[in-house]
Structure formats: structure tokens, C-alpha cells
Design brief:
It comes from Nocardioides ginsengisegetis. By secondary structure, the protein is α+β, with helices and mostly antiparallel strands. The chain has helices at residues 4-12, 80-87, 122-137, and strands spanning 24-27, 37-38, 43-49, 53-59, 74-76, 91-97, 103-110, 113-119. Strands 2-1-5 form a 3-stranded antiparallel β-sheet.
Length: 139
């Protein structure tokens, strides 16, 4: 998953978020800096039961539930497919890199040329490509 810095950079670059089921987000400065939340209609938790088994418990509420807060407080952490959608027609390809520079490269079309944006995971490479495309569209 992409870093906090990339998620903040996307927000600061003007990427808008309309929260929807399945979206991931983080909330900073409220003692949740390392937690990733998912928008969902239902809370499901994994419970360990006797004999070493696990069950998935469907809960309507939880005792530790947060009060509500404005969506602007949350920082969206887009998934790979959402980032690819943000690139639109600029997206050319995603490739896995092997060797000394393991990671992923996203190639985008900018103007008459192609650019590659590399990072350790696909979502981060996509995020870097989105930032570059947005930066270029502001010129």
C-alpha cells in the first residue's frame, strides 16, 4: 500500500474523493496514524475460538466505535484500480521490475512522449504517475 506521504500528496494535488463502499482511508493526528480504515456497511471481525479455529463475526456495531467526523479529515488511500482510473487515457502500462531494482513501473503518455514512474509497489508507482500527470495538466 502507498505511503502516508503519497496519500497526502494526492490530496494536496487536488485529487477529489467521494467516499464509497470499499474505499480505504487514514485519519492522522487522532492516535490512528498507522490504522487503515475501510468504508463498509458492516463490521466484520475475526474471532479465535477453541480448538484453534477462527470465525468471521458479523457485527452491527462495536463497543469502540468512533463518533462521526467530517470526511475532509480522512485521507483517501486509493486502490490500484482507482489510481488507474484517475490516469484515464494517459495510462499506457504497468510492469513488474525484476533484478536490483525490484518494484513496479507505470508508463504514462505525457504530451508527445512517454514517462515511467517507479516505486516498490504498484499502488505507489500509480500514485507517482497520477501526481506527474496532474502536475503537467496545471501547466
Amino acid at each position: 500500500m502507498m505511503t502516508r506521504e503519497l496519500a497526502l500528496a494526492l490530496r494536496d494535488a487536488g485529487v477529489e474523493w467521494a467516499p464509497a463502499k470499499g474505499d480505504r482511508f487514514v485519519v492522522f493526528d487522532r492516535d490512528f496514524d498507522t490504522d487503515v480504515f475501510v468504508v463498509s456497511d458492516m463490521v466484520i471481525e475475526v474471532l479465535d475460538v477453541p480448538q484453534g479455529r477462527q470465525v468471521l463475526a458479523f457485527n452491527g456495531t462495536t463497543e469502540w466505535a468512533l463518533d462521526s467526523f467530517e470526511a475532509e479529515v480522512a485521507v483517501w488511500v486509493p486502490r490500484e484500480d482507482q489510481l488507474r482510473d484517475l490516469l484515464g487515457e494517459a495510462f499506457v502500462s504497468l510492469e513488474r521490475l525484476d533484478g536490483a531494482a525490484d518494484g513496479f513501473a507505470v508508463t504514462v503518455r505525457r504530451g508527445a512522449g512517454l514517462e515511467r514512474h517507479v516505486d516498490v509497489d504498484a499502488e505507489s508507482a500509480y500514485a507517482r504517475a497520477v501526481l506527474a500527470v496532474l502536475d503537467g495538466s496545471a501547466r
